[in-house]
Each structure stands twice: as C-alpha cells, then as structure tokens.
Write a structure and sequence with these properties.
With 152 residues, the chain is an all-alpha fold. It contains 7 helices and no strands. The radius of gyration is 47 Å and the shape is elongated.
Amino acid sequence: MYEKDHKEPDFMKRPPKNPFRTPDSYFESLEDRIMVNIKNTTKKKSSSSAIIRFLKPALGIAASITLVYMLAYNPINKFLQKGTAKTELTDTAGTDLLNNYSINLASIDDNSLINAIFTDETNIFAETNPDEFLAYLSTDMNDVEIYSEIQN
C-alpha cells in the first residue's frame, strides 16, 4: 500500500537531460540568415515620402499664417462692429409672395377695376363648368407648371 501511494510517475523515470536543444550548425549559419533577412526587409525610399518631406514645412507655414490671421481678425472685426449702426432686416418673404401672386394692377385700366370691385357677382365660378375643374385637377401638373399656367 505504501508503494502505491509513493510510486513515481512515468515522466520522472526519464533521464534528466535538457529536452530543448539547438539544431546542428545553427549558430554557424545564423549570421548569414540574419543578414539576408535584413537585406530583404530594407525598403526603398519612395517618392511620396520625398513629396511629404517637401510639403510638410509649407503646410506648417500656411497653418500658422491662418491661425495668426484668425486670432487677429476676430477681435478686430468685433471691435469695428461695435461702432457701426445695426440695421434690422425685415422679412420680405410675405410681400414677395403677395407680389408674385397678385394681379398686376398697372395693366388694368381704372374703369374695369371699378367695375370689377362694384359688381354684384358673388359667384365668380358661375361661368365655369364642373367638368372643366375635374379635368384641370386630374392633370398631373407640378407646382411650377401650375404657376406658369396662372401667370399666362
């Protein structure tokens, strides 16, 4: 029983020598192989690196000039704007829209304008046929075509 508990494992029975070893003539050809790898891995300098080396100072100078300009421009511009009078911008979009869709009153003479204002016609669509409305609405016209039809 004592022998079973203290029995040596199989891997301990092997002779105690180093399992890791170098191949034969490894160090004799190592230096030659390293030199071949170094020669193969050296890269030729490309022309793009020469261009980058040439442009790097120029881009640095351009960036610094731009930075100095912006740092000087903003305070000077704000200082100059303090003394100027501020004008308010009015919204002309509403009046432009009214002018675009309104009747050109200069082309109508006074008599026809007065007659149009004081007529007792309450239904301006009395003369039109409902079929004409349906035909007009059924056409596939976009906004630009409708606007051009109204203007003409």
